Amino acid sequence: MSNADNWQGDVLRDLRGGGPAGQAATPHVPPGQGQAPARPGAPHTPTDPAPQAPPSSGQAQNSSPAHGPAHSGTRPARTPESRPAVDPSLAGASRKPRNGEPFTIRAARAIWRTVSSSVAREVAEISGIAETLQRPVTTGRQIAVTSIRGGAGKSTVAALLGSTYAHYRQDPVLFVEADPALGSLPIRLGAESLRWTTGDVAGIVQPQMSLLDITGYLVQLRNNAWLLPGSQGQIGAMLDFRSYERVMVALRRYFGVTVVDCETLPAEVARVALTASQACVLTTPATLDGIASTHAVLQWMRGLTPHVISGTVVVLTDLSPHSGINTDEAVRTLRSAGPSVHILPYDRHLADGGAIRTDLLARSTRTAATRIAADAFRLSQKRH
Ligand SMILES: Nc1ncnc2c1ncn2[C@@H]1O[C@H](COP(=O)(O)OP(=O)(O)OP(=O)(O)O)[C@@H](O)[C@H]1O
Ligand SMILES: [Mg+2]
Questions:
Q1: How far apart (Å, rounded) are the C-alpha atoms in residues 134 and 144?
Q2: Strands 279-285 and 83-84
Q3: Which of 45, 109, 231, 335 is the right S-S partner for 180, CB 3.0 to 4.6 Å?
Q4: What is the 235 CA–ligand 2 centroid distance (Å)?
Q5: For 76, which DSSP code?
Q6: Burial (CB count within 10 angstroms: exposed 0-12, middle 13-18, buried 19+), residue 332
């Protein structure tokens, strides 16, 4: 991979202090500790750290953006306090996370794998998918996840896709929550505390900011993955489509892949996301009415702009263990409208809600998520 092809990877190395000169990055604020990045002119709350507080570990950190002398953007009137993603009083409500599939199935598969000749074929397919997912990009790819109904699996699919990109790729990956009404993406991603939101960052982001500046407003999830939440979990947060556009245009150059968890169609932000992103994932419950309404929406999307449907992946999510529909037939019907179609199987671990632990996902879920991620990424590379 040439340097020119892997610009985000280079930026990321610099961010971790592994730049060509081998110098450490500027000290910055640790992630997940709810500390505000220093914004010149921003009012500091009593809990704000000093602008250049040192990191607490050697990992990539949230930064204290060292902004230029003046930023002319409309800033939020306040520096928000950080809030826990899940109310601490609810901590006792969750059980021990379950494996995505029962033990008997895992055991039977282990035996099958030792005698099956299709293992080699499977390995070859996985290598092909990994190669697709690792392809370098010259400009950031933005992938919007939406649906036409609530509870169709958007946040779950967005979390699975972004985690897959972060696993396979070297460059920075961003999750954007563009569904501020009590969205569950931060919980799915295991974020502990939330501070700056998509709406806040719309008023802050400036062209001259570095990745280091930007990450100071984000929740760091792992070395190369960040989250921009839609709200701090309160009711009534808003995001207008202009703020959404501003954030997405501004952040595109910093991140190799951005996955957006949108609200349901036909809300305005979701419509803008559909046409402005490089690929779209439409989730639908694997039920008769879910499939019928998604089919209708695909017809509507055909009329939007011709390229939208060719950049769309439909994901049928199996929300119950014993689905009563003929999924093969459903896939065929939806494919006839133009998009690529996949099934995300029922998974006990996903059904339980809460933070997704990829090691607990059923094998079929992991395989499906990886295929969907590769397909969406491949389609996103066809658009500018
Ligand atoms: N593959 C799956 N297997 C089992 N349960 C699933 C699966 N995918 C999603 N779910 C469950 O379905 C429910 C809805 O999922 P999710 O919150 O991702 O949908 P959403 O479209 O983001 O909802 P909203 O419109 O409220 O934002 C959740 O309880 C989730 O745990
Ligand atoms: Mg959601």
A1: 19
A2: unpaired
A3: 231
A4: 14
A5: P
A6: exposed
Q: Can you tell me the distance from the alpha carbon of 354 to that of 165, in angstroms, rounded to the nearest whole number?
A: 20
Ligand 2 center from residue 365 Cα (angstroms): 18
Q: Identify the residue whose C-alpha is closest to ligand 1 atom 3.
A: 346
Query: How far apart are the CA of 100 and the centre of ligand 2, in A?
Result: 20
Alpha helices in 193-315 (DSSP H): 198-202, 211-215, 241-251, 268-276, 288-304, 306-310
Q: Which of 350, 356, 357, 364 should be mutated for ligand 1, with most atoms under 8 A from CB? A: 350
For 326-372, the pLDDT digits (tens) are 989 999 999 998 899 999 999 999 999 999 999 999 999 999 999 99
Q: Which ligand neighbours the alpha carbon of 149 most closely?
A: 1
Ligand 1, CB within 6 Å, residue ranges:
147, 150-156, 179, 183-184, 264, 317-319, 344, 346-347, 350-351, 353
Which domains are assigned to the chain?
Answer: 101-380 (3.40.50.300)
CA dist 79 → 35, 178, 187, 356 (Å): 10, 20, 23, 30
What are 279's strand-pairing partners? 143
Ligand 1 midpoint to CA 250 (Å)? 30
Mean pLDDT (10-residue bins), the chain, 384 residues? 51 52 34 41 34 33 38 61 82 78 74 63 81 95 95 97 96 94 91 94 93 96 96 83 95 97 92 93 94 90 81 95 87 92 96 95 94 97 88
Is 333 within 8 Å of 325 (Cβ atoms)? no
